[in-house]
């Protein structure tokens, strides 16, 4: 199973773009890259998933280079409510997702 | 409507007791999971069920047993509770992926059950 490495914490200010990079050097051919967000006292919430290149939805963008050994979650114009822990996961999706959550990145958004 | 629900939200009990946590999903998903989040906030998968079959069984003590009466429910039974079992337990569900490109396999998590063993 591919392991992931993320920064432990990041600080930002409201209105800024935040980029969180995740390293996954041992990613396998069938693995997808998924990001989750977790607020205190809540379960994680899916943000975005991708396989290669760039994926964008209404919440975030995910940039994946050609070698797929890393990925970057981009949050445009963060607000105070984006303060949360962000988890990067890699794994295949056949027959159920064998998920390993790392320690995540704690993002603090300041006013 | 709540997609994934868990009961109870809080559970305080003494060592040695047996307890259960219930989970229900109304998303029509094929796979359900149980996770444990410890005090350091690490999330660890414990079990997953696909169409009533256990497909992932991590190295958890056999005091923990998942029971799925149907596709929409996955309950967690814990026997002989220990202090180290204190944690937040999350239930989740997802559609089964088909591999390869395309498809959506995100997991939907419940609100969690905070278990405190005294």
Count of separate DSSP helical elements of chain A? 0
The average pLDDT of chain A is 89
Which descriptor suits the 3D outline of chain B?
globular
Q: Give me the count of strands of chain A.
A: 9
Instruction: Specify Rg of chain B, calculated over alpha carbons.
Output: 14 Å
Helix content of chain A: under 10%
The portion of residues assigned to helices of chain B is: under 10%
Evaluate the radius of gyration of chain A.
13 Å
| Beta strand count of chain B | 11
Describe this structure as you would to a colleague:
- The complex is a heterodimer of chains A (111) and B (118).
- Chain A has 111 residues and is mainly beta.
- Chain A has strands at residues 9-13, 18-23, 32-38, 45-50, 53-56, 61-64, 70-75, 84-91, 105-110.
- Chain A has a five-stranded mixed β-sheet with strand order 1-9-8-3-4, with no helix packed on it. In chain A, strands 2-7-6-5 form a four-stranded antiparallel β-sheet, with no helix packed on it.
- Chain A is globular, with a radius of gyration of 13 Å.
- Chain B is mainly beta and 118 residues long.
- Chain B is built from no helices and eleven strands.
- Chain B has strands spanning 4-7, 10-13, 19-25, 31-37, 43-50, 53-57, 64-70, 73-78, 87-94, 108-109, 113-117.
- In chain B, strands 2, 4, 5, 6, 9, 10 and 11 form a seven-stranded mixed β-sheet that branches. In chain B, strands 1-3-8-7 form a four-stranded antiparallel β-sheet, with no helix packed on it.
- Residues 97-104 of chain B have low confidence and may be disordered.
- Chains A and B meet through β3 and β4 of A and β4, β5, β9 and β10 of B.
């Amino acid at each position: 199973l591919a392991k992931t490495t993320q920064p432990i914490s990041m600080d930002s200010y409201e209105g800024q773009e935040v980029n969180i990079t995740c390293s996954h050097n041992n990613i396998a051919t069938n693995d997808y890259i998924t990001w989750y967000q977790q607020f205190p006292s809540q379960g994680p919430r899916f943000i975005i998933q991708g396989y290669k290149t760039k994926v964008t939805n209404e919440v975030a963008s995910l940039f994946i280079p050609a070698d797929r050994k890393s990925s970057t979650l981009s949050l445009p114009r963060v607000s105070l409510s984006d303060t949360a822990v962000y988890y990067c996961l890699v794994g295949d999706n056949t027959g159920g997702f064998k998920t390993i959550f790392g320690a995540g990145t704690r993002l603090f958004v300041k006013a | 409507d709540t997609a994934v629900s868990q009961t109870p939200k809080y559970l305080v009990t003494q060592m040695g007791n047996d307890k259960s946590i219930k989970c229900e999903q109304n998303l029509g998903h094929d796979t359900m999971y149980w996770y444990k989040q410890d005090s350091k906030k690490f999330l660890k998968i414990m079990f997953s069920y696909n169409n009533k079959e256990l497909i992932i069984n991590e190295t958890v003590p056999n005091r923990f047993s998942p029971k799925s009466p149907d596709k929409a429910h996955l309950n967690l039974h814990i026997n002989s509770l220990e202090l180290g079992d204190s944690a937040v337990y999350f239930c989740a569900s997802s559609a089964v992926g088909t591999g390869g490109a395309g498809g959506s396999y995100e997991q939907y998590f419940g609100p969690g059950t905070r278990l405190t063993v005294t």
